[in-house]
Amino acid sequence: MSKPDKKPSTQDKYYEHGTSMRSYLRSLWIAHGRSTKGQVHVRDAIDVKRTMHIVGMCLLPAVFFGMYNIGLQAQLAIIAGATQPVNWELAIFNLLFSGLNAESGILSLFAYGASYYIPFYLTALIVCLFWEVIFARMRGHELHEGFFITALLFSLILPVSTPLWIMAIGISFGVIVAKEMFGGMGYNFLNPALAGYAFIYFAYPTEVAAISQFVAADGYSGATTLTLAASNKLNFADVSWIGALSDPLWWDAFFGFTVGAIGETSALAILLGGGILLMTRVADWRVVAGVMLGMIVTALIFNYFGPAKNAMATMPWTWHLVTGGFAMGMMFMATDPVTASYTRNAKYAYGALIGFMTVLIRVLNVKLPEGIMLAILFANLWAPLFDYMVARANIKRRLKRHGL
User: Fold this and answer.
1) Do the beta carbons of residue 354 and residue 375 sit within 8 Å?
2) Helix/strand/coil for 328
3) What residues contact residue 371 under an 8 Å CB cut-off, 6+ apart?
4) Is the same domain home to 119 and 98?
5) Which of 123, 121, 92, 122 is CA-nearest to residue 108?
6) Which residues span the membrane (predicted)?
7) Are 61 and 204 part of one and the same domain?
8) Mean pLDDT for each consecutive 10-residue tract of the chain (404 residues)?
9) Which of 204, 222, 240 is the last residue of a domain?
């Protein structure tokens, strides 16, 4: 009596169609390309809502200090000869504190800044929520909490005197073009806040990039550290990276007592919040390490081999860290898990590209001294390629290990 035929295995079926053992093993070790259907495993209790709450709490130090610094810089400008604006934002402040002057204390300075920032953030939040609700209804999806953080980040990287209608246009562009057109939450390959900022930066340069927009006082005539360096009005030729720490101006920039965007002036507040972000593992330290390493190496190369007449080329990396929006971009923009690279090794390359491009843009483009914005958007485009290269390298290594 003959034995019944054995049921052909998956491997036998592969051989029947002429498929090699190499292809069969690839099918076992590499994802088959079909998306998961139904319920999936949940590793922990972290979801989008909790993640956004953590990011929001980590941004609070920069928010609170930013509101205080708005009042402080306006007070210094008024002492130097500028005047307090007459606008609707300061109506309640003027009733409570009788205007801003040289004698105004910490509470009044904070209230002065809050008078500007609260309408600023509410505008971004309402516009962002409006578009999120529309697209959620169109697609039949639930409303995610990510719009809170998009609006918060967008409001922190703009000058305080930016008109609200320009802010509404910018956040609309970021949400619609950079996010919703590609499928919404989790599908965007560009950071919505940075995309919106880039749009209004080039569309309305006199309303966003002008130095007078950074201080909430009429008649202000000053400059940021980046602007001074780009115009060769600062000399870093004889300053080492560690020697910068003995400069009082560096410490002012580190603590945030300088002119700049609302939430970007205090590197200390940003690094404190960013440190918590790293400890909670919401942000990946590999991206931050890549950005820092890329910035430091590129800055050192320009310090040793760059033109001595270019102040940006001679600027030590310690100054790059505390000027402009570098700290904010490194800790909260580059670490966006949606637009950054996914694989571990690719995250180093992704971060290093951001650090490299930031210094390169600052040195070579004197008309655009703030390079972190374009650097992150440029790296967002390269992130999928980095992941692909790492995945291919892993496949080749595993096949070689098994002698295939």
Assistant:
1) yes
2) helix
3) 324, 357, 358, 359, 360, 361, 362, 365
4) yes
5) 92
6) 51-70, 109-134, 146-178, 185-204, 253-278, 285-305, 317-335, 347-365, 371-391
7) yes
8) 52 48 52 58 64 90 95 90 87 87 89 93 94 88 83 92 92 92 83 92 84 82 74 71 82 91 92 94 93 95 84 88 92 91 93 95 82 92 92 86 72
9) 222
Closest to 197 in 3D by CA, of 161, 145, 150, 148: 150
Q: Is residue 83 within 8 Å of 219, Cβ to Cβ?
A: yes
What type of residue sits at position 25?
L
Q: Give me Rg for the CA atoms of the chain.
A: 25
Query: 122 and 57, same structural domain?
Result: yes
- The number of beta carbons lying within 10 Å of the beta carbon of residue 96 is 10
Distance (Å, rounded) from C-alpha 110 to C-alpha 118?
Answer: 12
Cβ-contact 157, 327 below 8 angstroms: no
CB within 8 A of 269, min separation 6: which ones? 61, 62, 64, 65, 256
| Cβ neighbours for 390, distance < 8 A, ≥ 6 positions apart | 341, 343, 344, 345, 346
